[in-house]
Description:
The chain has one helix at 138-141, and strands at 3-7, 13-16, 20-24, 42-50, 54-61, 65-72, 75-79, 84-87, 91-96, 101-107, 114-121, 131-136, 147-151, 160-161, 167-174, 179-182, 185-194, 196-199, 203-206, 210-216, 219-223, 227-234. The protein is mainly beta and 240 residues long. The relative contact order is 0.19. Fe cation binds at residues 59, 61, 103, 105.
Amino acid sequence: MASVQIRRAADRAVTTTSWLTSRHSFSFGDHYDPDNTHHGLLLVSNDDVVQPRSGFDTHPHRDMEIITWVLEGELTHQDSTGNHGVIYPGLVQRMSAGSGILHSEKNGSATRPVHFVQMWIIPDETGLAPSYQQRQIDDALSSSGLVTIASGMPNHEPAITLHNRSAALHCARLGTGDSVEIPSAPYLHLFVTRGRLVLDELGNLDEGDAVRYTEAESGRLTAAAPAEVLIWEMRARLGG
């Protein structure tokens, strides 16, 4: 059955520590809501700000595709398979935890916070070998169109690959007045990372707002101010 639900930025659960402000689109950590555990295949969409010279110490993950998209500042990744990378705006990163991995994520700046969105989906198969991929895509995003930045779907040519054949992550950067068509899909999740957008008949979407579609038909997003949006296109859902 077709449905659409707008989730406003102010309605998200928030975790606050001395070095972290994390806003959660779904249940996460101590914030559990049995009616808000995922949408489609998307389990986690955290909007995080990490203060200078701080971050996530080494911790484990298993059987998870973790995609990180930095909005401001730089985030340093290091993991137990020997990968090391600095993630910054315009560069997309995917870590496949697979059979098990340890990693840390740190803000090495002495003065600037780092602001990023981190998203988790389940892979099609468990026990895969852990892996890591990152790619700079600023040039592609300058077109103001929808760019597939991560996907496991057949016939896609994404910047980075996902180990899930039913999921794809798109991004668009739009100038004022620019518009983009959203995909038709059984499940869609839109997240406004910056600016203001207008979605067909539904009105304004501001920074931090999200939209969840079930049985989505094609529609259009138009920028009321310079904006960026992340769109998950999903052809399946957890548990079926």
